[in-house]
Amino acid sequence: MRAAVYRAFQGPIHVEDVPEPEPGADDVVVEVLAVGLCRSDLHGWMGTDPDIVLPHVGGHEFAGRVVAVGDLVTRAVVGDRVVAPFVCGCGACEPCRAGQHQVCRAQEQPGFTRWGAFAERTTIPWADVNAVAVPESVDDVTAALAGCRVSTAYRGVVERAALRRGETLCVVGCGGVGLAAVALGAALGARVVAVDRSTAALELAGRLGATDLVTVADGPAGPAGVADEVRAATGGAHVAVDAIGGAGPAASAILSLRPQGRHVQIGLFPTATADLPIGRVIRDEIDVLGVHGLSASRLPQVLELAATGALDLRPMVTSRIGLEDVAVALPAMARSAGAGVSVVTAL
């Protein structure tokens, strides 16, 4: 089969002929139908993920059709169209038994701990747990996005922050996961404030339901200036999401909150530690909530939102590309964030 392989971190990516994957006893092999390009794939290519062993095939946000099943698989059959969460739980440990597969200590992550979906075929581990059936009314691209950025935003906005109708949601960073958070907030009936440097990203956020658009400008005001603008417009957010990662975006989100607000940290930090406005967290009794994806057991809830039309992700997708384009498109993410989401649909 063909796969986009890199043999050195930050090195060239070439589409090569490689052996087809064989299913382990608990695995299924899927024909990849669509796979999103995510900044986590970029971080992996840059060498920041210790789980990656070279040579490597990235791609963790995918939907596919089952073409082979392991001997112990009982739920998935050949021909099923499925999606998997980017964190695949073992199904047997204490967190998994409690339905919290996203914090499984034995977790596998296709595209990181094993070869991923920038290929014609890939595998889903512990398939009885992680291979989730896709409703017929949900297209391949939407299903793929549900595997990472949309389900991660759902975990943060719906489950962790418990955003309610009539509340105000502030989303800092309108990349893929930020746009998904905007769309979810709008679907829940919240007032949504979108914050970004890019006017193109903010325009997409507006199409997905954001009613207030705040442009981050260079200057001395920094995070406090962004927060002042959000609070002036809304009285302060009930829920704020840092969908980028880093001290500046996280501070902007935290400072935008009203007393006893909920801060959701989704974006990954480039460093292990960072200065944050902890004094404000203490003074205003802010809840700080981490997010590491969504359990496979609740992926059907996200797919149902798409199936019923309550969640329309089509405006997020601004580029459909082929497998050969990954060689250029993935490294290019380090130079420019662009606007919207690119999805590989020609494999």
Account of the protein in words:
- There is one protein chain.
- By secondary structure, the protein is of the alpha/beta class.
- The protein folds into two domains: 2-148 and 294-346, Alpha-Beta Complex (Quinone Oxidoreductase, Chain A, domain 1); 152-290, Medium-chain alcohol dehydrogenases, catalytic domain (Quinone Oxidoreductase, Chain A, domain 1), CATH 3.90.180.
- The protein contains twelve helices and 15 strands.
- Strands 3, 4, 5, 6, 7, 14 and 15 form a seven-stranded mixed β-sheet that branches. The protein has a six-stranded parallel β-sheet with strand order 10-9-8-11-12-13, sandwiched between helices.
- Helix 5 packs across helix 6 and helix 8 runs parallel beside helix 9.
Supply database-style keywords.
Quinone Oxidoreductase, Chain A, domain 1, 29% helix, 2 domains, alpha/beta, 15 strands, 347 residues, 7-stranded mixed β-sheet, 6-stranded parallel β-sheet
